[in-house]
């Protein structure tokens, strides 16, 4: 049931309905108050963290994911370590702590912590590392990692769409207008194909802003 709640809440925020996603997370935490199951709690923590990141509640997301990474080690739930580390890295990078996020994620790659979870966990880490490099102004590294994230992200769950969006943002920072425009268009089209209006709207808004700026 917790697994289903995690995927339900994740789907809802990708549809842009943060409130409904939050309600599902709250319901899941109610169940977990009566059942001690670390893996299930970590599943919900990762989705809760993502919702808070999208809502720009970055201090809350950071605190939750710091604890989640620690719980992975304490309870030996290594299958969740890469996902938790990736989302923590994302929260740090967006919360003015990219300097901490980069070594955290680079060490995760060096230690191959994603091996326990497969490509799913690695995608979270790679997208977050691209954002962290971008926010440090290391744009060449950010573009390199961002392109790799797009290349390796699976089409399912919208991971590739998210990777495309963040790569487009990095290209915008790098003042590569043509590549940025192409990437936002690809993001919009991929999001439309998958039925994820959250990223479709964000990509469309970025394109509209770019067009207004150059009108």
Short description:
By secondary structure, this protein is mostly helical. It has eleven helices and no strands. It is globular and about 60 Å long.
Uncertain segments are none
SS-based structural class? Answer: mainly alpha
Helical proportion, percent range: over 70%
Largest sheet: none
Put simply, the count of helices is 11
Q: What's the average pLDDT? A: 93
Count of beta strands: 0
Beta-strand content bin = under 5%
* C-alpha end-to-end distance: 51 Å
CA radius of gyration is 17 Å
Using the alpha-carbon principal axes, give the shape: globular
The string of secondary-structure elements, in order, is HHHHHHHHHHH
Could you outline the blueprint of secondary structure elements for this entry?
Layout: H1 2-14, H2 18-32, H3 38-54, H4 58-74, H5 81-94, H6 98-110, H7 119-135, H8 139-152, H9 159-173, H10 177-194, H11 197-213
Give an overview in words:
It is a single chain. This protein is mainly alpha-helical and 215 residues long. Helices cover 79% and strands 0% of the residues. It has eleven helices and no strands. The protein has helices at residues 2-14, 18-32, 38-54, 58-74, 81-94, 98-110, 119-135, 139-152, 159-173, 177-194, 197-213. The longest helix is centred in the C-terminal third of the chain and has 18 residues, at 177-194. The model has no long low-confidence stretch (mean pLDDT 93).
């Amino acid at each position: 049931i917790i697994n289903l709640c995690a995927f339900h809440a994740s789907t809802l925020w990708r549809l842009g309905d943060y409130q409904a996603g939050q309600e599902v997370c709250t319901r899941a935490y109610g169940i977990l108050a009566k059942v001690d199951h670390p893996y299930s709690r970590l599943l919900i923590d990762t989705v809760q963290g993502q919702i808070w990141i999208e809502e720009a509640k970055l201090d809350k997301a950071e605190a939750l994911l710091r604890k989640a990474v620690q719980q992975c080690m304490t309870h030996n739930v290594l299958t969740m370590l890469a996902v938790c580390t990736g989302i923590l890295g994302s929260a740090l990078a967006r919360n003015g702590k990219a300097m901490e996020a980069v070594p955290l994620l680079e060490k995760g790659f060096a230690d191959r912590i994603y091996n326990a979870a497969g490509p799913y966990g690695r995608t979270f880490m790679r997208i977050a590392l691209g954002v962290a490099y971008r926010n440090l102004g290391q744009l060449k590294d950010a573009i390199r990692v961002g392109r790799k994230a797009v290349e390796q992200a699976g089409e399912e769950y919208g991971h590739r769409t998210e990777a495309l969006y963040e790569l487009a943002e990095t290209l915008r920072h790098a003042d590569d207008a043509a590549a940025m425009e192409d990437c936002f268009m690809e993001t919009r089209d991929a999001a439309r194909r998958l039925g994820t209006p959250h990223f479709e709207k964000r990509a469309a808004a970025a394109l509209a802003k770019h067009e207004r700026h150059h009108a």
